[in-house]
From TrEMBL:
It comes from the Bacteria. This is Aldehyde dehydrogenase. The keyword Phosphoprotein does not apply. PROSITE patterns: ALDEHYDE_DEHYDR_CYS (PS00070), ALDEHYDE_DEHYDR_GLU (PS00687). The active site is at 232. Belongs to the aldehyde dehydrogenase family. It comes from Microbulbifer flavimaris. InterPro entries: Ald_DH/histidinol_DH, Ald_DH_C, Ald_DH_CS_CYS, Ald_DH_CS_GLU, Ald_DH_N, Aldehyde_DH_dom, ALDH-related_metabolic_enz.
Length: 455
């Protein structure tokens, strides 16, 4: 009897059904990974780097096959899936480069009395075994942001992908093995809830690197005990358009960073604040661009918006849109549904306490809010449980600096949207947006500890 069914979000076809794994599978995998730690300790940094470089090249070679698996599993458009594999290639390449650059420091003991004639050597060492848990929306690149740095640091890895992503994850793991990672270094499991909780609490797991929702993160934190936790938990990210903004560039960023991946991105531009002086012109341009987007079959190159991951996700977003409209919001574009597809929707006059804007909404809906003074935007942005990233379009450096200093976020992108991410930049937020930082160099340190030798 199967525990899980992979359903194509666009066609509704059954792709695969399979049984989730249990505690005995966790024990088996972790026993193997304990043995693998010896192998990792004996493998020099340059050899780990070479393996990651081979993996990067394999990702390029299998780009189309991986992209099509992602599209079938998640409904992400094929063009978006191809971009994801390009990013995964960059992540693997950056991991290969950083594996060779892990270095510590030397300290002279005479900085403070009474110690003299001693030298401290401080090095970074792997934590041991890292449990890497990934979501459905970027199944390969987010996995690479965990596997790549964990391996580069010298850890062994227990990889738990989202259950919808079983086939693409299996292909990624096979490429890791083909590149030279041993099975004793990387194991993939898709366990049931009980076995996942068991793995989180297991004494042979030394860190949990998780991307997903706050409720699951709270459950992990409650079970993990004294383990290193690295959480990326999403956001309710603002895009601010000032009165001196390049409106065409701002519209393009809003479209790409809200409606791509059907809005199912933690860094999507989920709240748009537009200065009153340019609001009408911006709204007109935005609605025109929104209505021109191709919606439908995600396997077609020209499609920009495909389905949400499943009917439950579409139901939730549709309900939030309808509730906002009932509360007085005005629909400028969209508010149409066909199966799991929601047409890109633009709203204005959404109440500030509506779930659509007060909570993280994972779907292709863009609420516009006009403002007169930027200080009111700061208050609205910071009065939120999340604090991941933000974007502002302005030519005024003073405004950009003020927002950088006052917004409670992990990154502010100037003349870009909150969806900005480069694989080697630190990535993460504050408050309920998570703990720690991803980005290859920073993730390596998150999955390592400092060890000192005094001579």
């Amino acid at each position: 009897m199967s525990d899980y069914q992979i359903i194509n979000p666009y066609s509704g076809d059954l792709i695969e059904e399979y049984a989730l794994q249990g505690r005995e599978d966790v024990d088996r995998a972790l026993a193997l990974l304990v043995e693998g730690r010896k192998l990792q300790a004996e493998t020099p940094a340059f050899a780990r780097s070479d393996i990651l470089l081979r993996l990067a090249n394999l990702l390029q070679d299998r780009k189309e096959a991986l992209a099509r698996l992602i599209t079938e599993e998640t409904g992400k458009t094929i063009s978006d899936s191809r971009v994801e594999i390009e990013r995964a290639y960059n992540t693997a390449l950056a991991s290969a480069m950083e594996a060779r650059g892990i270095h510590g420091e030397a300290l002279d003991s005479d900085a403070f009395p009474p110690q003299r004639d001693r030298v401290g050597v401080v090095l970074w060492k792997p934590l041991g075994t890292v449990l890497c848990i990934t979501p459905f929306n970027f199944p390969i690149n987010i996995a690479m942001h965990k596997i790549g740095p964990a391996f580069a640091a010298g850890n062994t890895i227990l990889f738990k992908p989202g259950p919808q992503n079983k086939r693409s994850a299996e292909m990624l793991v096979q490429l890791c093995y083909e590149a030279g990672m041993e099975e004793s270094v990387l194991q993939m499991l898709i366990p049931d809830i009980d076995a996942t909780s068991y793995a989180v609490a297991h004494s042979q797991v030394h860190a949990v690197n998780f991307t997903g929702g706050t409720a699951a993160a709270n459950a992990i934190a409650a079970r993990a005990g004294y383990k290193k936790l690295l959480f990326e938990l999403g956001g309710n990210d603002p895009l601010i358009v000032m009165d001196d903004a390049d409106l065409d560039a701002a519209v393009a960023a809003a479209i790409n960073q809200r409606f791509a991946t059907a809005g199912q991105r933690c860094t999507a531009a989920k709240r748009l604040f537009v200065h009153s002086a340019v609001y009408d012109r911006f709204a007109t341009k935005l609605v025109e661009a929104t209505r021109a987007l191709k919606v439908g079959d995600p396997t077609k190159d020209e499609t920009f918006i495909g389905p949400l991951i499943h009917a439950g996700a579409a139901d939730e977003v549709e309900q939030r849109i309808s509730a906002a409209v009932e509360a007085g919001a005005r629909v400028l574009a969209g508010h149409k549904r066909d199966g799991n597809i929601l047409w890109p929707t633009v709203l204005e006059n959404v109440p500030d306490d509506a779930d659509l804007v007060a909570e993280e909404t994972f779907g292709p809906v863009m609420p516009l809010r006009r403002f007169d003074e930027v200080e009111e935007v700061v208050s609205l942005v910071n009065n939120c449980a999340f604090g991941l990233q933000a974007g502002v379009f302005t030519q005024n450096l003073s405004i950009a600096k003020m927002l950088f200093n006052q917004l409670d976020v992990g990154l502010l992108a100037v003349n870009d949207g909150p969806g900005f991410r480069a694989e080697h930049f630190p990535f993460g937020g504050v408050k309920e947006s998570g703990v720690g930082r991803e980005g290859v160099r920073y993730a390596i340190r998150e999955m390592s500890y400092q060890k000192s030798l005094v001579i």
